[in-house]
Design a protein that fits this description.
With about 450 residues, this protein is α+β, with helices and mostly antiparallel strands. It contains 11 helices and 18 strands. The radius of gyration is 25 Å and the shape is globular.
Length: about 450
């Protein structure tokens, strides 16, 4: 099978690294060809803090995915998260030379490029520039300005910013693991592609992705991303609390959390007890499930309240900005028992658990349809989308080359003098593609 037929998403998480290979079938659904996962060593709260260990973990996951699928992984789309990510709102405009001319893609690109030149804090770099809505000559609430007439093109942008060092470290790990960096995308955006429906994005929805090291939030309204945030707490902190509170080792704490843990202490009776084997010949330890739930409950409430502050910051309490579709929980942490009920109780918003199965082909493995793999599936979707764009661009180039050849024949037949003609092909790149290229150059030079 040739490289162009399949794509790869790589999720570098705090607890696990997942490499997922897939392709789009004839029905537009995603067929998973292979999946590989490894324990994530060297990543803390979404940020790489040990490059050597991270490279090893990436290679392990990639080798497993290659063995499962019999395919070779070349280029990957990677997710980025971590507490260094922040977002801001920004408005900008351009004045066009000729208002009698139709607004084209190049005008929109020019406006987005202008935002990329914003002066950031030292050591920060713009990751995404996401247009919210446009204004043409003062006429507001325009979704798609291309094709309209006007002299002044304005837009509100949601700008996502991250630390250069963290982005560079991710790129360095990918390169050292023998892979090509196809694209970098914000993890909450990838997860939202995998688990949210278009109707939910229109109605207004908050996606909460509870990972091992971070909890990512993405808010959509009217089909447009309105707010993103990364909270530096996740399932790992809950495990840490259990470990400290019950005086047990981390492995046992994680098992206790996943098998017996609940976010709602009232669910357990006082006499429910679980016995943990003692270390090296010591007596077993008895732990009350009610106490376990109390430890989990305290930390989960803290995480949800921080997320709810971000939802309020977006303006959820205003009638116009109300999130009608409520909250969607995904990520490994969303599998905690009674979490849905606790979120509804704290926020008063409708809540559901998000599974990435809507976009997967019917015969996909059940394991992949788990909230654990929401980000990885979203990154794979992003990789497939990029490949489609590339294919279209290549087709455009071929068509334009054919046109040029035909024109050359006409010129030759007319036997006219050689006339310098402008090159017909102008490859259109998205702002993000340009940013990816700049990043690759940056990584190549930073030896």
């Amino acid at each position: 099978m040739e490289q162009t037929k399949y794509s790869v998403g790589l999720d570098i998480g705090t607890t696990k690294i997942v490499a997922i290979i897939g392709k789009q079938n004839e029905y537009g659904k995603i067929e998973i060809l292979g999946i590989g996962k490894s324990k994530s060593l060297g990543v803390h709260r979404g940020v790489v803090n040990n490059i050597t260990q991270t490279i090893k973990s990436i290679q392990q996951a990639v080798e497993e995915a290659e063995a499962n699928s019999g395919l070779k992984i070349g280029s990957v789309v990677v997710g980025i998260a971590g507490q260094h990510i922040r977002s801001l709102q920004h408005s900008d405009y351009i004045t066009r030379k000729d208002s009698e001319e139709v607004i084209g893609e190049e005008d929109v690109d020019l406006l987005c490029n202008q935002v990329h030149k914003l002066i950031m804090l030292p050591g920060e770099e713009i990751i995404h520039v996401l247009p919210q809505e446009y204004k043409v000559d003062g006429q507001a609430e325009i979704r798609e300005p291309v094709g309209m007439y006007g002299g002044r093109l304005e837009a509100n942008f949601h700008v996502v910013v991250g630390q250069v060092v963290s982005i560079k470290n991710v790129g360095r790990c990918i390169k050292s693991a023998g892979l090509d960096l196809g694209n970098i995308t914000l993890e909450p955006l990838a997860s939202s592609d995998a688990v949210l429906s278009q109707e939910e994005k229109e109605a207004g929805v908050a996606l909460i992705d509870i990972g091992g090291g971070t909890t990512d939030l993405a808010i959509f309204k009217d089909g447009i991303i309105r707010h993103t945030a990364v909270i530096p707490f996740g399932g790992g902190v809950i495990t840490e609390d259990i470990k400290e509170g019950c005086s047990i080792i981390e492995k046992q704490a994680e098992l206790l959390k996943t098998r017996f843990g609940s976010a709602w202490p009232g669910e357990n009776r006082d006499n429910e007890i679980v016995s943990i084997p003692g270390l090296r010949g010591r007596e077993p330890k008895e732990i009350s499930l009610k106490n376990l739930s109390k430890i989990i409950h305290a930390r989960v409430v803290e995480i949800i309240e921080q997320v709810y502050v971000e939802i309020k910051n977006y303006g959820h309490e205003e009638q116009k900005k109300k999130l009608i579709a409520g909250i969607v929980l995904t990520g490994g942490g969303s599998q905690l028992k009674h979490l849905k009920q606790l979120v509804e109780y704290i926020t008063g918003m409708d809540t559901r658990i998000g599974y990435p199965n809507e976009h997967l082909a019917g015969d996909s493995d059940e394991e992949v349809a788990s909230p654990l793999y929401a980000t990885a599936v979203g990154l794979l979707m992003n990789a497939i989308k990029n490949q489609e764009k590339l294919k279209l661009t290549q087709e455009e180039i071929l068509q334009e080359q054919e046109l040029e050849q035909e024109e050359e024949l006409v010129y030759a037949e007319r036997d006219t003098e050689a006339v310098a003609r402008p090159n017909l092909h102008k490859e259109r790149k998205s702002v993000f593609d340009k940013w990816s290229e700049k990043l690759k150059e940056f990584l190549d030079n930073a030896e």
